[in-house]
């Protein structure tokens, strides 16, 4: 009996061992699966945390690295004022250097980076600008593109302005003492006045709108005006020896009628009268020259004005006056350079409201036009 029991005991032990091993393996596999699942979750969470951390940290690390060698860019918005001059042909690097030296931007690199990012930056114009101190570079680029920040002295010389009026305007707009402007005008060489002007700038100060830099003096301003007149004459092929005559005639055309459509005919009347030795005896008989000779800007000459014997009284003296009587515009110059054909010797504005002007070849025709003017004035008293 004992032998039998002793023979069967190992078999039970082996079965139990095998069962225990199977259960152990199942438990082990289950634990491994759970560990793998936990590892996957931990890995996912770790990656997510690292990604979030990088989004937060990278800009700050970049700023820290950049800041290690000095401020790369100002946070803004800026304060105070800095006046800077951008020269013709300046590159982004050049502009950045100017702004950095003026403490407008923190570094040249910040500006050049902002310059490259702005597609309109190449349109920045030369000139003087009023900017804030310690601006963000991007704001500095935008400010240079805004015309409102450009510090310029804008001077407009209207067509027909006398030289004295030009001097006064320069003094008032540019803040230059009138005496300094007059002194500059009295120095022909200093303002580049050609010899054919005879030392008198009248007519040589081109009618136009100019942009000057703060600090430009009277000599520079007047010189620019003279230079433009020379350029206009050269563009039209006016010989040097004819420049003064063209300007004189054009200035008279400018003052005699208000509508450019009549400029050509008035220019032809001037030419015809100068060369006519009969009916008008070479006299222009122009009110505009008489008024200039007595120091008046406009209006109708009085009998006293007409009796004043001076070189500009073209009722008394034949030919052209000694100088221009104002600043002619380009249209008036064009009319003198190429006047239309015609035999007119007279003209009269018959409607002061519309500026309608009639031209005549004979005194009889002219008197009829004058009668029309008088009728208009009687029907339309001032």
TrEMBL record:
It is found in: Cell membrane. Residues 1-32 are annotated as: Disordered. Residues 19-32 have a biased composition (Basic residues). One of its GO terms (biological process) is peptidoglycan biosynthetic process. Belongs to the transglycosylase MltG family. This is Endolytic murein transglycosylase. It is a single-pass membrane protein. The chain crosses the membrane at residues 40-58. Its main location: membrane. The record marks 256 as: Important for catalytic activity. Functions as a peptidoglycan terminase that cleaves nascent peptidoglycan strands endolytically to terminate their elongation. Its EC number is 4.2.2.29. HAMAP family: MltG (MF_02065). Residues 9-18 have a biased composition (Basic and acidic residues). Pfam families: YceG (PF02618). GO terms for cellular component: plasma membrane. One of its GO terms (molecular function) is lytic endotransglycosylase activity.
């Amino acid at each position: 009996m004992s032998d039998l029991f002793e023979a069967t005991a190992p078999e039970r032990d082996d079965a139990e061992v095998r069962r225990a091993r199977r259960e152990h393996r199942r438990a082990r596999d289950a634990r491994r699966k759970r560990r793998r699942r936990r590892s996957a979750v931990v890995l996912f969470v770790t990656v997510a945390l690292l990604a979030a951390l990088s989004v937060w940290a990278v800009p700050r690390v970049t700023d820290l690295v950049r800041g290690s060698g000095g401020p790369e860019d100002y946070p803004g918005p800026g304060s105070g004022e800095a006046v800077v001059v951008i020269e013709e042909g300046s590159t982004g690097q050049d502009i950045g250097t100017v702004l950095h030296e003026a403490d407008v931007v923190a570094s040249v690199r910040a500006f050049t980076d902002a310059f490259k990012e702005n597609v309109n930056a190449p349109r920045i114009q030369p000139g003087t600008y009023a900017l804030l101190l310690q601006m963000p570079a991007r704001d500095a680029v935008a400010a240079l593109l805004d015309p409102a920040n450009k510090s310029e002295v804008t001077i407009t010389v209207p067509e027909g302005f006398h030289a004295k009026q030009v001097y006064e305007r320069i003094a008032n707009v540019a803040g230059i003492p009138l005496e300094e402007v007059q002194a500059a005008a009295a120095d022909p060489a200093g303002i580049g006045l050609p010899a054919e002007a005879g030392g008198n700038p009248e007519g040589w100060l081109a009618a136009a709108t100019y942009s000057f830099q703060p600090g430009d003096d009277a000599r520079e301003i007047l010189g620019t005006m003279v230079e433009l007149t020379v350029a206009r004459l050269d563009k039209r092929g006016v010989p040097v020896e004819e420049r003064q005559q063209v300007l004189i005639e054009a200035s008279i055309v400018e003052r005699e009628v208000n509508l450019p459509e009549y400029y050509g005919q008035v220019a032809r009347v001037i030419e015809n009268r100068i060369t006519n030795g009969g009916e008008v005896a070479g006299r222009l008989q122009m009110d505009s020259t008489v008024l200039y000779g007595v120091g008046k800007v406009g209006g109708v000459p009085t009998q006293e004005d007409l009796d004043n014997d001076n070189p500009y009284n073209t009722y008394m003296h034949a030919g052209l006056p000694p100088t221009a009587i104002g600043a002619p515009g380009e249209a008036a110059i064009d009319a003198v350079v190429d006047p239309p054909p015609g035999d007119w010797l007279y003209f009269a504005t018959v409607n002061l409201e519309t500026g309608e002007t009639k031209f005549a070849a004979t005194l009889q025709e002219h008197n009829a036009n004058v009668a029309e003017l008088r009728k208009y004035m009687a029907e339309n008293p001032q």
